[in-house]
Amino acid sequence: MVYYLFVVHDKNADGHLDGHELRAAFTDFEEGDEDPTKFISLEEVTEMVDHVLEEDDIDGDGLISWDEYLQSQLYHGQT
Questions:
Q1: How far is 43 from 37, CA to CA, in rounded Å?
Q2: CA–CA separation, 59 vs 68, rounded Å?
Q3: Which of 22, 54, 72, 79 counts the most CB atoms within 10 A of its CB?
Q4: Mean pLDDT across the chain
Q5: Which residues of the chain have pLDDT under 70?
Q6: CA distances from 64 to 3, 45, 51, 74 (A)
Q7: In this structure, which long-range contacts are made by residues 52-61, counting pairs with CB atoms below 8 Å and at least 24 apart in sequence?
Q8: 16-37, pLDDT tens digit by residue?
Q9: pTM for the complete prediction?
Q10: Residue 79 · residue 70 · CB < 8 Å
Q11: Taking the alpha carbons of 40, 24, 62, 72 in that order, is the dihedral positive or negative?
């Protein structure tokens, strides 16, 4: 399930999540909801993306690899 969530949000299939893909993941609500800002502000999403990149981007390349994602999920007890 964890790998599925990673792959679903890796829109360009490069094996990494970039800031745009993370933003999309954080605003991926039900299909009928066209305006995600009614749930969360753009500023909050930006802060969340920045936090993820700061905490989980171990090699500092500005991307979250599968290994980095998995390490984060294991650390936070999500697997």
A1: 10
A2: 9
A3: 22
A4: 89
A5: 29-34, 36-37, 79
A6: 13, 16, 12, 14
A7: 52/22, 53/19, 53/22
A8: 999 999 999 988 866 666 676 6
A9: 0.81
A10: yes
A11: positive
